[in-house]
Design a protein that fits this description.
The complex is a heterodimer. Chain A has 4 helices and no strands. By secondary structure, chain A is mainly alpha-helical. Chain A has 2 domains: 90 residues, no CATH class; 52 residues. The model of chain A has no long low-confidence stretch (mean pLDDT 86). By secondary structure, chain B is α+β, with helices and mostly antiparallel strands. Chain B has a domain of 91 residues: OB fold (Dihydrolipoamide Acetyltransferase, E2P), CATH 2.40.50. Chain B contains 3 helices and 10 strands; from the N terminus they run αβββββαβββββα. A 5-stranded antiparallel sheet of chain B has the order 5-4-3-7-6. In chain B, strands 8-9-10 form a 3-stranded antiparallel sheet, with no helix packed on it. In chain B, strands 1-2 form a two-stranded antiparallel sheet. In chain B, a hairpin with a 2-residue loop joins strand 6 and strand 7. The longest helix of chain B is centred in the first third of the chain and has 11 residues. The two termini of chain B are 24 Å apart. The relative contact order of chain B is 0.12. The chains are: A mainly alpha, B alpha+beta. Chains A and B meet through helix 2 and helix 4 of A and strand 8 of B.
Chain lengths: 144, 145
Amino acid sequence: MKKVLGVLNLTFMSFGMVLLLSSFLFSKAIALEFVYQLLFCTFLISVLMELTNQLERKFQIDSLFLLAVLKLFDICIVVFPLGMGAFQFLPLTVGNVICVLAIILVVYTIGFFMLLIDDVNTACRINEKIHRFHEHCKKKHISY
Amino acid sequence: MILNVKEDAECREIEITIRCAELTESVQKLVDRIQNLDAFCECGTEENLMKANILDAYYFESVENRTFVYFEKQVHECRLKLYEVEEKYEKLGFLRISKNTIVNMYKIEKVKPMLNHKFMLVLLNGEKMIVNRHYVPSFKEKFNI
């Protein structure tokens, strides 16, 4: 159930962001067909990302580079053949492919560093709690 | 918190009364901790069975279907399975950080973030452990984060 909720959460968050971005980029009104296709693409990416997470857990993948490649592959396998191919969001030209690839890389890097900042913040908060706990034990001569 | 210790020569067993306005989560933690102050785990082989205070344990590790409990300097084989350790000692601050490791949160000295979104734990005895990504949410939850 948690995994399903995680997939749905990621789907609707990415769908919302791409939809918002599209409304700024394209001056024309967004067609309902485009909305459904976009929702399908974001859902598929979320499912693939969850599968990658399962693989990571099963095979205990530690390599940061391999993980990044797998995650980027999840996005590219949907965006290029489906988004730019079948659904024709953008014409499938070399220029567009490079441009979209660059956007994916930038978004992935930003996401990666945002998560890292969050982890640093979490570690600081936990360390503060641990420090307070040990100080308290020292003061009260409690041994744990 | 006010702590009173009364000496009574007629007292046969230590009696602890906790007086509080409400049974909050922190009071419950205190109750669990007191209840298990003399919690022991059976370690060693059939011939060389010994009891060790669970609160002194740093972590439990499962290796090839055998469970080992690590103290500051010694290592003993534990008779419990890792899932049994998790069920039995969760309330005492033992938490799972990977498929085969359960750590005593009171023996953590510091936490360091890693680039692959895992956390590295430095224990009070200097040993380093890794919290796998799958266990990061429950690890954060244990510290109320």
